[in-house]
Design a protein that fits this description.
32% helix, 398 residues, alpha+beta
Length: 398
């Protein structure tokens, strides 16, 4: 049985595959798109349940064709082995579509040029927005996978207090968290789409390093250990009176949860301003999750959070101090930055099936980062929290 599953190309249950394919074709029909060619790993994984080198051709009507380059020995309906993209033409023959969608937001220019020649005379459209829309609404099967990641994510976070020892740096603590996480089954991959953003298994930010601006559009940056990856832990020693914000990888099965929690060395060592900001973060979660219903505008969530921050006189520290992030939440799933985006100019509207990571955070000068992040699923009539570690600040009392 194991060999059969290993060699079968499409690993999705039949009903799940049919549901995802129907969703894509419905969006294709509305866009007037007669065919779509997938080559991005995340999109191939979405429609097949595995990653392979090649292409998935989805016609608006007719049979899906999986054009495989590597690995060898995959089988199943619609599997065609090719050496180069030009071989696609031979398989399609007279069934060449009138128009085809390509992942234009992701394709390198040379790849786009080459694929354009594979479809001579065919109108080419951008399928990237369509794919992001489809993937933003999770099925029950997908939410189940995210829920399982959340359970293991929580197990890792509950072990963090026992990983700390006095004199430890943020980097040393992160390495210990990574070890435990991998042993719990974390894949270690932090899949990010779009603009150049890079990260290794997440962020552990101690003290002043949380205030270091980063080139990436993350809620919290950090200087990192080298200019080639200027984000995250930088070797800061974890000291009394400062915080440690942990925002580590939650990818245990191809679908991610996003969770942040705050730790500190000693009970009673943090100033009142930090405690006030942390309470505000938790309160924002409560207010926004009560609002998160299908049809609600994403920007309304942003505005409510900003109102609460302003009323509590915390605006100067909100979503950064020296540098501020322009969002407080985002969709999450196969990739960490999916739709919808909770931002002031977002045009997104919430739908049932959205899975959203909310992260209203603060940076207090000389103390560090404060606030929590949870991953929520918008279900029928309710919002389900998928990351259930304790939300209050956890102290490393020894």
């Amino acid at each position: 049985m194991k060999d059969v599953l290993k060699n079968r190309l499409n690993l999705l249950p039949a009903e799940e595959y049919a549901l995802r394919l129907s969703r894509l074709r419905d969006l294709m029909g509305k866009a007037g798109m007669k065919g779509m060619l997938l080559t991005d790993n995340a999109n191939i994984y979405y429609i097949t349940g595995r990653v392979f080198a090649g292409y998935v051709y989805i016609p608006h009507e007719g049979e899906v064709i999986n054009f495989v380059r590597r690995p060898v020995e995959l089988d199943g309906d619609g599997v065609v082995y090719i050496r180069k993209p030009e071989d696609i033409t031979m398989s399609l023959g007279l069934n060449m579509p009138e128009s085809i969608g390509l992942e234009l937001d992701l394709l390198p220019y040379t790849t786009f040029r080459r694929l354009s020649k594979v479809f001579p005379g065919v109108e080419i459209a951008n399928a990237s927005p369509l794919l992001r829309t489809a993937r933003s609404i999770k099925t029950d099967f997908e939410i189940g996978m995210i829920r399982r990641s959340g359970i293991k994510h929580d197990l890792v976070y509950r072990k963090i207090p026992k990983l700390f020892s006095p004199g430890m740096s943020d980097l040393e603590l992160q390495v210990e968290i990574e070890r435990v996480s991998r042993l719990e089954g974390c894949l270690g991959q932090f899949r990010i789409s779009g603009d150049s953003m890079e990260l290794h298994m997440g962020n552990v930010l101690a003290g002043e390093n949380a205030d270091a601006p980063s080139p990436y559009d993350f809620a919290m940056g950090g200087a990192g250990n080298d200019p080639s990856l200027p984000v995250g832990a930088d070797g800061t020693i974890i000291a009394p009176g400062t915080t440690v914000m942990v925002d580590m990888n939650g990818n245990f099965d191809g679908y991610m949860t996003d969770m942040t929690r705050v730790f500190a060395p000693e009970t009673g060592s943090l100033p009142e301003l930090a405690l006030k900001a942390h309470r505000c973060s938790i309160d924002i979660h409560r207010e926004l999750t009560a609002m998160m219903k299908p049809g609600v505008k994403a920007k309304d969530l942003w505005e409510k959070a900003e109102q609460m921050v302003t009323e509590r006189d915390l605006k100067a520290y909100y979503m950064g101090h020296r540098q501020h992030a322009g969002f407080i939440g985002h969709g999450v799933g196969i990739e960490i930055n999916e739709l919808p985006v909770i931002a002031p100019r977002s045009r997104d509207v919430l739908s049932e099936g959205n899975v959203i990571a909310l992260e209203p955070k603060f940076v207090i000068p000389h103390v560090g980062a404060i606030g929590i992040e949870n991953t929520y699923a918008i279900r029928a009539g309710k919002v389900e929290c998928l990351t259930n570690s304790p939300e209050e600040i956890v102290y490393f009392d020894l």
